[in-house]
Amino acid sequence: MDAIILQTLNGLDKGSAYALIALGLTLIFGTLGVVNFAHGALFMIGAFCAVFLQRILSLSTITIDETQKDFLGNPLKVETPYVHNWFGPETGSLIIDWSVPLAIFFAIPVMIAVGFIMERGLIKHFYKRPHADQILVTFGLAIVLQEIIKYFYGANPIPTPAPDALKGAADFGALFGFDPNVIIYPYWRLIYFCFAALIIGAVFAFLQFTTFGMVVRAGMADRETVGLLGIDIDKRFTIMFGIAAAVAGLAGVMYTPINPPNYHMGMDFLVLSFVVVVVGGMGSLPGAVAAGFLLGILESFASTTWATTTIPGINQIIIYLVAIIILLTRPRGLMGKKGVMED
């Protein structure tokens, strides 16, 4: 039982990343009808927003400290971060330590701006083009973006730690009545799952309970009729593209302590996220979220020693096997609707 709980927890944090990226993908496809293969790059850009902010906060000034000497008797050069000078040593150190959570506030406007530029500058010209054209142009854009990141940050992963207060692990098993130290799980992974649940809930609440969201849902169902009512639905869809970009970016920001950012992380998650979208059902937001968590948990269980010993390599193919089985039995996915991408 303890192994089941632990693997379920592992699956939930990985499924959280899948669900957030798939949610953004489905928002874009459901509103604009665009198959956006650059969405994984938005996840990557969000992660590097955290890296960028950490480096900015760590910028230092070099001073000569006459009270300290090196082994030759020369005064030592001391690096003091600017935030220490501005806010004091204690507050400055705290700001640097909490750079990843602070990156959330930095990433939101950056990702919305990136989404607007991407939609207005490129993707709007492909609304009425075949899906194959959309895939080619957005995939090309993703490659360009990842090469830009590689040029500025290099090819190696960049460690971006969580705050010191959240680096430990919780005795999760004690909550279920197990012996102490049986199920130990990192705090940050639990925080990531809770964060993902909050973002997903906020997106659904926004679409369900706000006037803006209701108009967007109406436009997703019948774009022409909403336009005839005098509503600028294109403008609202552009805003939704920005929101979808922000969702992907926030998923990337909070994932950095779990998986150090690198230039190809967007592509790594993109393929799996498209599988999630297809399994959940093209255009179905609940389906994307449900499939994300389902496949994350299945992948976690397939990565256990017992599974990989019994069927070598099963952890690499389990998601695709499940996708094949589901699509053979339910061609539209778990919650897909009739007519979506069927013409």
From TrEMBL:
Secretion signal, residue range per the UniProt entry: none
Superkingdom per UniProt: Bacteria
GO cellular component: plasma membrane
Compartments, record wording: Cell membrane
GO annotation terms (biological process): amino acid transport
Membrane-crossing segments per the record: 16-35, 42-64, 102-123, 190-216, 237-258, 270-298, 310-328
Membrane topology classification: Multi-pass membrane protein
Keyword Nucleus attributed: no
InterPro entries attached to this UniProt entry: ABC_transp_permease, BCAA_transport_permease
Alphabetical UniProt keywords: Amino-acid transport, Cell membrane, Membrane, Transmembrane, Transmembrane helix, Transport
One of the Pfam families matching this protein, by short name: BPD_transp_2
GO MF, one example: transmembrane transporter activity
Record family assignment: Belongs to the binding-protein-dependent transport system permease family. LivHM subfamily.
Protein's UniProt name: High-affinity branched-chain amino acid transport system permease protein LivH
Species of origin: Roseovarius aestuarii
Taxon lineage: Bacteria, Pseudomonadati, Pseudomonadota, Alphaproteobacteria, Rhodobacterales
